[in-house]
Each structure stands twice: as structure tokens, then as C-alpha cells.
Amino acid sequence: MEPLELSTLTAEPLQTVGMMFYFSPQATAEGEKAGLDVVGLYAGGRGGVLGNITPTEVDEIFYFFNPGMIAGAIEGARSKASIEDTVAAHVAAAKAYARDSLGDVDDATLNAFSDAVEALVATLPSGQWPIYDGYRALPVPSNPAERAYHWAIVVRELRGGVHTDVVKAHNLSPLAACQLDRGGAFYGLHGYSDDDKVEETPEIKALRGAVEDDTSRKMAELFETLGDDQRIALANGAIAMNSAITGA
């Protein structure tokens, strides 16, 4: 399997798999234990892996949200629970979601996926993609489903970091990037309204397409360090997890 094929093939599955636990029943349950709703657990947990930085700094790293939205959610979460407890609840939700969702995926597929991602991250630098670094630094579970889900989140955040770099390099605004992503599927969730929308000209649509293509090419460059068997294992794991979760 060629690196670009792997990059393109796994982009959507890993985007979906890695985010599905955010507002799941498992997240609701773990959030309640920590005194948080699912929004607070999402912001405080995903933001919490960045460490003890200010809400404004977290807001800036969560690049594609309406400025101030994440900072406000972080402040709310920190008023109710410590960063450590929030991250622990966030991780517990991911583990519970993995156990409940990936039972039909055989352990061999999950373990081969995890082994491939571990080989990948061993070749990557730190200090370039903050959210990726935060999740990468978390303890890796030993349970096959939990372990594979952990690494799915890590690869999702890796592509997110690469994508952020590409959006900035192309001088595309985060608002426009979000609006033109997946038909605006996350536009409202990221705090934007109809009044914020940019005109969707042919030029800006072409730019957004170029950004996606460039993101895939840069991810492919990272995948070049893997052998063919490892790339196939990564692809098979991503597809199997996505199928188990979405039925697709």
C-alpha cells in the first residue's frame, strides 16, 4: 500500500473513530462522576492533555473554533474539577467507549493496528503538534480495544496538527476552513453562526480542496517510514474500527 493511498483511505475513518467518544453515553457517565457535563469534559479533557496552560492558550491551540468559545468552556470545567481529574475522566470515557464499541473487531486486527501506529510515532518529532503530543504522552492501555482506540485518537490528532499547519501555510482562515469542511458539519458545533459565514466562491472552494490534498500528501510523507505490512495493518484497523462504530 502506497503512503498516499493510506493517508487518503484512513482520513475519514480515523477522524470519525477518534471523536466518537466525546459526547457518548460513556462520556456522560464519566463526566457526571467528575461533576462535569459532556461539553466540559470534552473541552477540559482534550484541552487538559496540553497541561497546565491558560484557557486562552488552549483556545488558540483549538484553532478551528470561534475565538473564546473553548476558553470559556475550559474556565467552566476548571471551576468544577482539577485538570488531572478531568483528563482522567476523559480517558476513562475513551476506554469505556472502546470496550463497548469494538467488541466485534478481533484482537489480532486491533493489535496489528496499534503496533503499526507505535512504529509510526517512534519516528515523529515532539513539540510540533501540541494536542498530538498531549495524547501521545498518556499511558497506553494494555487491553487491545482500549489500546487501539488510544492510538486512533493519536493519529487523528496527528492529522489535525498537520492540517492546522497546512491551513495556516495557505492563509485560509480557520472560519472558512471549518465552514467548508464536510459541508459545514462542524460549523455550528465550533461556535459559528450564519452571520459569520464567508462567501463560498470558486476560488475559496478550490483553496479548501488544495488544503485537504496538501494535508494528505504531508501525512503520506510521515507514513513513508512504515513498511507495506504496517501500512496495511494501519488501514485494516482503521476501517474495522470505523465499521464497528458506524456500521459503514
Task: Write a structural description.
The protein has 248 residues and is mostly helical. The chain has one domain (3-246). It contains 12 helices and no strands. The chain has helices at 3-19, 25-34, 38-48, 55-61, 69-78, 83-101, 107-121, 130-136, 144-169, 174-179, 202-223, 228-246. The longest helix has 26 residues, at 144-169. It is globular, with a radius of gyration of 18 Å. The two termini are 22 Å apart. The model has no long low-confidence stretch (mean pLDDT 97).
Count of distinct structural domains: 1
Instruction: Please mark out the parts with pLDDT under 50 across 5 or more consecutive residues, or reply none.
Output: none
Category by helix and strand content: mainly alpha
Measured on Cα atoms, how large is the radius of gyration? 18 Å
Helical residue percent band: 55-70%
Q: Name the shape in a single word.
A: globular
For the termini, the CA-CA separation is 22 Å
Give average pLDDT, whole number: 97
- Name the beta content range: under 5%
Main sheet record: none
Order of helices and strands: HHHHHHHHHHHH
Beta strands, count: 0
Please work out how many helical segments DSSP would assign: 12
